[in-house]
Amino acid sequence: MLTIFVTIFSHYYKTDEAILALQEARKSNPGDLNMLLTEAEMYVKLNRMDKFEELMLDAVKVDPNNPVLYFNLGVVNYNEKRVEEAKTFYKKAIELDASYTDAYMNLAVAVLDKEEKIVEKMNNLPPSDMKGYDKLDAERKSVYKEALPYLEKADSLKRSPETVRTLLNIYENLEIEEKAAEYRALFKALKK
Fold first, then answer.
1. Treating both helix axes as pointing N-terminal to C-terminal, what angle do 101-123 and 161-173 enclose, rounded to 10 degrees?
2. For residue 37, is pLDDT > 60?
């Protein structure tokens, strides 16, 4: 009921006033997770991710076994380029819900975040630096190997063109030919 009131209030009045109303309401019932999340949602609409994160951390204290809260903290941290922190939150979400497909996918994306910098370094090497290239290529493959179990789990839970395409690329780059062939066929079938 309060959520509906705040939504209507924020629609007709200033968002700041709606946030103040929510904060006042939360003072009377500080353990109310719904009010806390409603206030956090208001900050998302205002693109105030610092306040959203602060409230999500409060929400985790109220409901420490809620994987969605940890997932949201992972998303906020990843978007703020705090990749290691994001990975920690995604892993916690998975620990609480081993079938949380999006947490596996986002964790894989966070792991693969390192790839861009490695490829950039590879592209900036002089053509004659084969040792440097090979070293960076090994680093890149190591990143793929780290991400692979998370992608495979996400794919096993909920197959999508995105999981299949990403796995196909990784299998090809790691030269796992049998899996690459399997996923090439799957990808073609999904495109039809």
1. 40
2. yes
